[in-house]
């Protein structure tokens, strides 16, 4: 089993007391794990940053939301951006929805797809207009994901049931 260093997040063997890389104690004594995960979003090892982005979805706080939004807007790593978008979709506020709208329109393919998934998960009927625009995107995957998202939102709001009962 691996134990991650609370200072540099280097993976160490569980029987070690000091980090192999930075020589700091491997004990996670000082409480604020969320703060450490936020700091790990800027870790030079991309695997550590990805892990931190994924784990931050467990904290539904404004602090985590702000850190994930910051990473989404500042990173050039599409995988980190996608992981942060996935975590952000579990926090779901109006602020996160505006981030999803922006990313869904342009950028790398994987983050765009994750943004559309986020819109489908937390969006309202108002988002269908944007999603319909995306069904005309030049990318096949974006078009299909937007169509799926429209169906999810329509099902959530029982649009088809209401139309059939009229």
Describe the protein in words.
The protein is mostly helical and 166 residues long. It folds into two domains: 30 residues; 135 residues, Leucine-rich Repeat Variant. The protein is built from nine helices and two strands. A two-stranded antiparallel sheet has the order 1-2.
| Rg on CA atoms, Å | 19 Å
H/E order of the elements?
Answer: EEHHHHHHHHH
What is the number of helices? 9
How much helical structure, as a percent, in the residues?
Answer: 55-70%
First-residue to last-residue Cα separation: 60 Å
The counted number of beta strands is: 2
**Side-by-side strand order of the widest sheet:** 1-2
What is CATH's topology name of the largest domain?
Leucine-rich Repeat Variant
Q: Quickly name the level 1 CATH class of the largest domain.
A: Mainly Alpha
Q: Output mean pLDDT.
A: 89
Major beta sheet, specifics? 2 strands, antiparallel
Instruction: Tell me which CATH architecture of the largest domain applies here.
Output: Alpha Horseshoe
Shape: elongated
- Helix-strand category: mainly alpha
* Number of structural units classed as domains: 2
């Amino acid at each position: 089993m691996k134990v991650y260093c609370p200072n540099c997040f280097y993976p160490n063997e569980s029987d070690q007391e000091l980090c192999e890389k930075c020589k700091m104690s491997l004990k996670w004594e000082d409480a604020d794990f969320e703060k450490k995960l936020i700091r790990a979003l800027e870790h030079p090892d991309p695997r550590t940053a990805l892990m931190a982005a994924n784990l931050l979805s467990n904290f539904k706080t404004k602090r985590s939301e702000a850190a994930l939004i910051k990473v989404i807007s500042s990173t050039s790593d599409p995988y980190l951006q996608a992981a942060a978008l996935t975590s952000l979709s579990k926090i779901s506020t109006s602020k996160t929805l505006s981030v999803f709208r922006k990313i869904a329109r342009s950028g790398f393919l994987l983050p765009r797809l994750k943004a559309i998934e986020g819109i489908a998960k937390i969006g309202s009927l108002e988002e269908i207009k944007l999603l319909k625009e995306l069904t005309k995107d030049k990318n096949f995957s974006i078009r299909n994901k937007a169509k799926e998202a429209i169906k999810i939102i329509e099902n959530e709001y029982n649009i088809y049931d209401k139309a059939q009962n009229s």
